[in-house]
Amino acid sequence: MEIVRDPQTRTGSDAVDVRASAQPTDRLEVSRKGPPVVSLKGLSKHYGENVVLDKVDLDVSAGEVVAMVGPSGAGKSTLLRCINLLEVPDAGTVTVGDQCVDAGKEVSAKDAMRLRRTAGMVFQSFNLFPHLTVLRNVSLAQERVLGRSRAEADARSMELLERVHLAHKADTYPARSSGGQQQRIAIARALAMDPQVMLFDEPTSALDPEVGLEVLAVMRELAESGMTMIVVTHEIPFARDVSDRVVVMADGGIIEQGEPHQVINNPQHERSQRFLRAVTER
Amino acid sequence: MNADLLSNWLEWLPDLGRGLQTSVLLAAVSLAIGIPIGLLLAVLVSSRRAAIRMPSIVLVEIGRGTPALVVLQLVYFGLPNAGLTLGPFTAASAALALTTAAYTSEIIRGGLEAVPKGEVEASQALGMSYRDTMRFVLIPQGMRIAIPALVGFGILMFQATSLAFTISLQELLSRAYSIGSSTFLYFQVLLLAGVLYLAITLPSGWLTGRLERRLSRHL
């Protein structure tokens, strides 16, 4: 099945400019597949005294799969949540597709909604709507946000549920599904909005390792279909084998990034070495 | 004595039965008007705009802080001074609906706040508006959480209909009282009134348990 439209046609020209200035590292050009879909520039966020993100720049190209790894508290999740404005950054700009938000200015609810529409998000704890059937979970926002009819939305939902191998669950309630199934439903729900980028916030951390595999398999298929993805994860094998680029974060900043095997097998930064040793050699 | 009591009870039952009907109807009308207003107030009290939030909080606090009996008297005896004269049933409905709205708004707000934060985040991440998030995600789940407390409040409200005795509404207590004053069998007739109140409240409490299980089966 086809879920990605030609990303080139959807990306605004101003986003390209941002990319050029924000990402001076030549080495990264190799892994690029197309123009940036997500562009973060000078992104900063603090809670009181605690600096969570410190002037982070990140461009993610169309079709690129970026794995974000790093110790907890590094700001990975916050960075991800800033991309769809679940957290409002204190400074910097967030561009997703042709929607750009400047944190310095007042962000209107309308702008935030429009930007969120272009990014799909999958949470660690699934966050399905427990009072709605699986089908309604996937259809609701299609109807309310995209204005699709009930029939159109349900047809699209069934397609996506088939894609995550859960069409038979359509008329049940989420509580009747296992964690892995719920997470796949959550992926279908996010995909139903035809996002330009999918954000995954530790999608397998709440699952036991075996169940996590079925979620990773769906994510792998999604990556192969050409979806642009940013995945915050501790699943190092997934980062190594599926992603196009691994980004290591620590202490509110990106300390190292590059080709997955390179970064994982031969990290340059002392902090990444320590972290990757901890997750790979246990 | 026992045979006397039973025959007295049988004699009074039709009259008290009609009183019970009035009491049940009054409670039903008060709740049917009060709870939707309570829901509205719960949403308004959570509003981010101070101009909406503040008046709602004031209304809720006044409604909760004033005894239902005072509100009742105010509506029935006080409002005519301001040019608005209401019949006893209308006045009682209005007063109890106001109290219901104020109290249930807090119960419902508690329910809305008990919905996991991730539900709102998921709705936001899907690009849903605040209004749609409220309507399709928060309110359905929050109301389910609030239902046991709401039914408990409804049972209390049913008992509070006896306050309408003070504005000469012919509900259960006032009928019992007038029988008592003509027969001087206060103990016997008030006992029957108590039994009739229980005949409604006990099964309601039992039904709540079932309703609760039914509503929470997916949560």
From TrEMBL, chain A:
A Gene Ontology cellular-component term: plasma membrane
Domain ABC transporter: 38-276
Membrane topology note: Peripheral membrane protein
Transmembrane segments: none
GO molecular function, one term: ATPase-coupled polar amino acid-transporter activity
SMART domains assigned to the protein according to its UniProt record, in alphabetical order: AAA
Domain of life: Bacteria
Keywords noted in UniProt: Amino-acid transport, ATP-binding, Cell membrane, Membrane, Nucleotide-binding, Transport
Enzyme Commission (EC) number: 7.4.2.1
Subcellular location as annotated: Cell membrane
Reaction(s) catalysed by this chain's protein: a polar amino acid(out) + ATP + H2O = a polar amino acid(in) + ADP + phosphate + H(+)
Region Disordered, annotated ranges: 1-33
Principal location: membrane
A Pfam family that the UniProt record links to this protein: ABC_tran
Enzyme class label: translocase
Record family assignment: Belongs to the ABC transporter superfamily.
PANTHER family named among the record's database cross-references: AMINO ACID IMPORT ATP-BINDING PROTEIN, GLUTAMATE_ASPARTATE IMPORT ATP-BINDING PROTEIN GLTL
Protein name: ABC-type polar-amino-acid transporter
Automatic annotation (TrEMBL), chain B:
GO MF terms held by the record: transmembrane transporter activity
The species this protein was found in: Quadrisphaera granulorum
InterPro entries: AA_ABC_transptr_permease_3TM (IPR010065), ArtM/GltK/GlnP/TcyL/YhdX-like (IPR043429), MetI-like (IPR000515), MetI-like_sf (IPR035906)
Subcellular compartments: Cell membrane
Sequence ranges assigned to domain ABC transmembrane type-1 in this UniProt record: 20-208
Family: Belongs to the binding-protein-dependent transport system permease family. HisMQ subfamily.
Transmembrane segments: 20-45, 145-165, 185-207
Protein's recorded name: Amino acid ABC transporter membrane protein 2 (PAAT family)
Biological-process GO terms, alphabetical: amino acid transport
Pfam families assigned: BPD_transp_1
Keywords: Amino-acid transport, Cell membrane, Membrane, Transmembrane, Transmembrane helix, Transport
Topology class, membrane: Multi-pass membrane protein
CC annotations in GO: ATP-binding cassette (ABC) transporter complex
Superkingdom classification of source: Bacteria
UniProt-listed SUPFAM superfamilies: MetI-like
PROSITE patterns: ABC_TM1
